[in-house]
Amino acid sequence: MKVTSSEFLISNSNVNKCPSNNLSDYAFIGRSNVGKSSLINALCNKKSLAKTSSRPGKTQLINHFLINNSWHLVDLPGYGYARTSKTQKKIFQKFITEYFNERKQLVSAFVLIDIRHEPQPIDLDFMYWLGEKEIPFSIIFTKSDKLKPNKIKINIENYFKKMNDQWNSFPVHFITSAAKKNGIKDVLIYIDQLNGLK
Q1: Rg (CA), the chain
Q2: Which pLDDT does position 165 carry in this prediction?
Q3: Does an H or E element contain 9, and which?
Q4: Distances from the Cα of 137 to the Cαs of 26, 82, 94, 112, 129, in angstroms?
Q5: Residue 160 belongs to what domain range?
Q6: Under 8 Å CB-to-CB from 91, ≥6 apart: which residues?
Q7: Is 1 part of any domain?
Q8: Is the pLDDT of residue 112 over 90?
Q9: pLDDT in tens, 46-99
């Protein structure tokens, strides 16, 4: 699949105000500063579709984008560190949870993980929560251009070793670089395949 059109639709903090059509949602989420906005821009081949920032926690709402007039790319607030108050973080957590619990149009989530780091408990806990809720998801390892191939392999193996304690099988995963456009095509092909299963 090639993205030929992409446009911003709506930002909100209430799942009931998300687009009411029957188009599929594909939600992108990860720790703050994981490179989510850059990845979204690379997927859509638009430099400024999603706002990038050097300040973690920039995304603070549920953002819907219409892709190829046929599906929604959903940019969700990052979990973990953000330069916001504890009260604001609780608000984020509430509407993220409501989105995953209530959004019937959601086909799959994509959990973004910075490939440069050791397995983070917050990532593992969030994926376990998705699993408990039976919410389909895949893993997108980001920033692969920052490491040598052997180190990438080791870091991914470390993640799956950690997950092995709680999972019978591992989710689909992708190795990407927004800067080099590595893995971008694979993610789009996967979304296209999921759309075809509807």
Answers
A1: 16
A2: 79
A3: strand 6-12
A4: 9, 23, 20, 10, 11
A5: 6-196
A6: 13
A7: no
A8: yes
A9: 887 876 544 444 457 899 999 999 999 999 987 764 454 565 556 557 888 999
Q: Does the residue 124 lie in any domain?
A: yes
Structure tokens at 62: 């549920």
Question: Does residue 155 form part of some domain?
Answer: yes
Tell me: pLDDT of 41 over 90. yes
The 3-state DSSP class for residue 83 equals: coil
Domain of residue 134, CATH code: 3.40.50.300
What's the CA gap between 157 and 163, in Å, rounded?
Answer: 10
Alpha-carbon gap, residue 151 to 163, rounded angstroms: 19
Residue 57, SS3?
A: coil
- Dihedral sign for Cα atoms in the order 188, 75, 77, 105: negative
pLDDT at 91: 54
Number of domains into which the chain is organized: 1
pTM of this structure? 0.90
Query: 137, 111 in Cβ contact below 8 A?
Result: yes
- Is 21 within the bounds of a domain? yes
Instruction: Give the model confidence (pLDDT) of 141-186 as tens digits.
Output: 999 999 999 999 999 999 999 998 788 888 999 999 999 999 999 9
Task: Report whether 78 contacts 29 (CB < 8 A).
Answer: yes
Rounded Cα distance, 7 and 10, in Å: 10
Count CA atoms within 13 Å of residue 111 on its CB side: 22
